[in-house]
Specification:
This protein is an alpha+beta fold and 77 residues long. The protein contains one helix and five strands.
């Protein structure tokens, strides 16, 4: 997908990791982990993955993906 205003593909937009210093899980108020591969912010405490769309974290629990066993195994590494 290409942004018609900039000609830049949405997938090339980057999340600013410095935001991690400010953002917390809206449910647990605990820190988040940035998953650059899946473009998500992970809340271990809530077992949720919040999507990052066009470089903007979507911090709505209803839009978050529930972590599965594979996700938890990856986080333990």
């Amino acid at each position: 997908m290409t942004d018609t205003n900039t000609g830049v593909g949405a997938e090339t937009r980057r999340f600013d990791p410095k935001l991690l210093e400010l953002l917390v899980c809206p449910l647990t108020k605990r820190p988040l982990i940035y998953d650059s591969e899946r473009q998500e912010l992970i809340s271990r405490a809530a077992q949720l993955a919040y999507p990052i769309r066009n470089g903007i974290p979507v911090m709505l629990p209803d839009d978050a993906r529930t972590l599965d066993d594979a996700d938890n195994a990856k986080l333990r590494r």
